[in-house]
Amino acid sequence: MKREQACQEVVPGKAEVRYPQIPPPLPAGPHRVVLLLPLEQPFVFGGVCRVTCLYGRVQVFGFNISQGQPACDVFSTYTNSLLSITAVPYSKPEKSKKELRREARILLRAYLTRDNRCQLMKYFSPLCSIVVLERLKTSTIEFISSHPGLSSVFSQEALISHINAEYLTLKSVGIRRNKKKNGVQLSESVISAVEELVSVSCEEVDGCPVILVCGSQDIGKSTFNRYLINQLLNSIPCVDYLECDLGQTEFTPPGCVSLLNITEPVLGSPFTHQRTPQKMVYYGKTTCRDDYEHYIEIIKYVFSSYKRESPLLINTMGWVTDNGLLLLIDLIRLLSPSHVVQFGSARSKYMPNLTPEYVDDTDGLYTKGKPRIRNRGFHIPETENLEFVDEERESPVLFAGHKLICVQSEFTFRKTPRNRESHNRVLRELAILGYLGKLQPPDPKSISPLHGLTPYQVPFNAVALRITHSDVAPTHIMYAVNASWVGLCKIQDEVKGYVKGPVLLAQTPLCDCVGFGICRGIDMEKRLYHILTPVPPEELRDVNCLLVGAVSIPQCVFKNQRGVEGTIPYVTTDYNVRLPGARDKIGARYSEGNPEEERYLRPKLYQPCSWVALGVQTGLHRQTLGRREGDIGPHYWELKGVIKRGTYELEALPATLGELELGAVERFSWSSSLDIIEDLRGRWACLLGRDCKRL
After folding, report:
1. What is the C-alpha to C-alpha distance for residues 608 and 459, in angstroms, rounded to an integer?
2. Is 47 left (phi over 0), alpha (psi -120 to 50) or beta?
């Protein structure tokens, strides 16, 4: 639902309701304006600002902001349909119109001059609302905007012919008014579905429905989820959210399955509200087409943490054809939702209605329907350890049933099959940049480039290592890890007998992920990884596994290395795509063979991790990474008690570089698609700028 907020309702047989126009905003000091909103009249805008309701009640993306409530940060970015501020009805006190006007005048004294107050009060009506819009600057916004071409995500200039007094007034706040057609719009079926789900969630009898949202790509699932979350937060304190869409995640970087408890409104695009999940597993790819089994196991593992203390909203992938539809049927059986919201539109591909009867009778990818019993070579022990449905369920083919809510999507969008992938890639990169924005200090005026921030050093033998999506030779493993996006994970066993490392996992573990980082560099002499991450130190002490997947560091991170003279590290235009390993698909795992043999393997946990914060010197000369006075480190943490869950086969690299027989490799970075043209033994192999160290 990329266009939302149906603000004017047409009643059959009656004339269209016409509302008074919004009066011009008035300046209220530096970077601040006051805006009066007539009832039900939306103010559509692009940009970011802080919204305070001074009088009455307004609604932003389904969330109500009333007089006296704290201000809300609103991110109406140009990557999605724009948001609007709308005055909504509220229970007014039993006062005369004169008393209400006097109350509003008193509230405006702190913001407007006498002349401006008189001008604004000409438009006053008893059910209008008054808001204060303030300029919003955050370190995340400034960090994203610092990259070339990305400032237009948050602000765009108008044509000279469109510049007027209103435009200049709003520009001081950092926003620009737009047409209603550019705002988010909801169809009647969407509004009806939201009202029903909010009503069910607020019932005292069963206040914890499990709501699964499904439908094809670009049909409005994400916008519906945000709007529903905001509507629910008007009535209940929190909502649980299970993310099952690997490619377009809402609250985390891509490639994750996560469970979150949402307590604050969602007033922007995903890259503006990256949050810390209750539980998260890093799958490592933006699609599950190569390994369905591991994807299902991850969802079951994350779903097991749901406590049924608040409503659960489940987001699913937009792949609903062929195996994608069968996989969706499996998920409905496994998660047993009470409500399934199915999106459809005239332009989307045909998708059968997922009624309880259809789901009960149809074979999934790995589960069986009622009429037929087939052996598909894979069994999911649905009820052995998890209570997906009632405890009395004895057979995995029995299905508790759900209520199907069909929603007709009517919004228009600009994506086509030709540009969809590039658009989605941009959104994924913005999500990663939004996550990396957490590395910045709170003061948005002091934004630092990534190569100026302090990384942690991690001993080779303190963490296990796994490339999740490709088969990489042990002699090239460091090329794949260096300058890559890594998941910081916890495995539940201990590594023993490896003095130097690195220690490699033979299979991808099913383990918790506490966050992400960039492997900024690798010190082969001291046998250390240099990790840049916003994860708090108290959580890093439990990290003992690094997972490298197919999720890439945005190229703008490498191209935008300020202060670098000469050749930019890890960036080259002289690159031969015909070299072995140059293409992402070479070495891809799970293309052949029977995955049944790996299914029940469990990981082995490794040594307690000793993370040490490093001081990073600046300057044009080659620096030595190490602790110095005034820096963060050192910090040493020990792992507490662990629970053994079985073992993994381990592989270790030869102890010396001579045994590795490393030579010049033009490029072998599977996950980040970087161009590494140096010799690992004698050239630069540290990430991001001039702070480099010879290996």
Report:
1. 10
2. left
Q: Could you tell me the pTM of the whole model?
A: 0.79
- Distance, CA of 551 to CA of 432 (rounded, Å): 9
CA torsion 405-406-408-414 (nearest 10°) is 90
| Section 377-397 average pLDDT | 42
**Residues 212, 240: contact at Cβ < 8 Å?**
no
- Long-range residue pairs from 381-387, CB within 8 A, at least 24 positions apart, any chain: 382/333, 382/334, 385/304, 386/300, 386/303, 386/304
Tell me which of 48-52, 93-97, 660-664 is least confident: 660-664
Q: pLDDT averaged over the chain? A: 78
Q: Characterize the bridge pairing of strands 339-344 and 403-408.
A: parallel
- d(CA 131, CA 35) in angstroms, rounded, equals 5
**Look-up: residue for tokens 């259809």?**
358
Residue 435 CB neighbour total at 10 angstroms: 22
Tokens, residue 46: 């692009």
pLDDT digits (tens, 9 = 90+) for 628-664: 223 322 232 322 222 222 222 333 333 332 333 322 2
Residue pair 428/286 in contact by the 8 Å Cβ criterion: yes
Are the C-beta atoms of residues 439 and 453 closer than 8 Å to each other?
Answer: yes
- The identity of residue 381, as a single letter, is P
- d(CA 507, CA 502) in angstroms, rounded, equals 15
Average pLDDT of the segment spanning 108-137: 94
H or E stretch at 211:
strand 210-214
Q: Alpha helices of 377-484 — where are they, by DSSP H?
A: 420-436, 477-481
Cα(632)–Cα(350) distance, integer angstroms: 56
User: How many residues does the structure list for the chain?
Assistant: 695
User: For residue 411, what pLDDT is reported?
Assistant: 63
Neighbouring C-beta atoms of residue 17, cutoff 10 Å: 10
Percent of residues in the chain assigned helix, strand, coil, to nearest 5: 20, 20, 55
Extract the tokens encoding 83. Answer: 């948001």
Structure tokens at 420: 């969809």
- Compute the distance between CA of residue 259 and CA of residue 512 in angstroms, rounded to an integer: 11
- What Rg, from alpha-carbon coordinates, does the chain have? 27
483 within 8 A of 676, measured Cβ to Cβ: yes
**CA distance to 177, 520, 651, per residue, from 543 (Å):** 46, 17, 19
